Amino acid sequence: MSDKPAEAPKAPEAEVAPSSGDGNKMVMILTLVNLVVTMVIAGIVFISFKKDNTQPRSTDILAEEEHGSSEGEKAAGGHGAPATSGHGGGGGHGEEKSASSKKSGKIVTLEQFTVNLATSGSITPKYARVNISIEVGSDDVDSEISQKLPQVRNTVIDLFNSKRPSDLGSVDGRNYLKDEIRNSINSFLVSGKIKNVFFTNFSISG
User: Which residue did the predictor score with more confidence, 53 or 61?
Assistant: First the structure.
């Protein structure tokens, strides 16, 4: 037998635990990735929000138009009054002229006329019954019409006596007679002219 003492069994070597440095690196990388992604998303949201604010909305456009029109009125009329056209900057005169041209004249109503129409001897006589009103441009013309009323009525009667029933059977024929009455009366007026002649009632009988 050998005198060497038996070797004691070696203790198993302890396993070396993996270093925690690799795990920390992974955590840092993931954290950085998340941070970058979050910043990118935030940047996209910010840019889109800013773009929406820079685009004009319908309410903004309406507000600008109202503001612009208000400024234009102030610049043209002084206190928001619309500018009026006219020579030499006198816009008020053009507006007054337009208003006066639209103003209706005074209406003078004549007494009813019953006048004979022109007919041949073999035809039953015809006559017209008509109410006439005339439009005058001023009080002076109205006064002159009143003073010359017999002459006015004589003119109307003579014109009706010259017309046949067929001449007055159409609208055009009656309008032509109105023009004749107006021109005939204006021919002897001095203070002004009459504007229009109206038949407020018209009938032919016989």
Answer: 53
pLDDT band for 21, please (50, 70, 90 cuts). Answer: low
In single-letter form, the type of residue at position 104 comes to S
What DSSP designation does 128 have? Answer: E
Per-residue model confidence (pLDDT) at position 97: 43
CA–CA dist 136, 120 (Å, integer): 37
Beta bridge partners of 108: 134
**Main-chain dihedrals φ then ψ at residue 90, nearest 5 degrees:** -90, 70
Query: d(Cα 159, Cα 115) in Å, to the nearest integer?
Result: 10
Q: CA quadruple 89, 93, 98, 101: dihedral positive or negative?
A: negative
Across the strands, what pairs with 198? 133
Q: pLDDT higher for 40 or 202?
A: 202
142-163 burial, b at 16+ Cβ within 10 Å, e below that, comes to bebbeebeeebeebbeeebeeb
Mean pLDDT of 62-78: 50
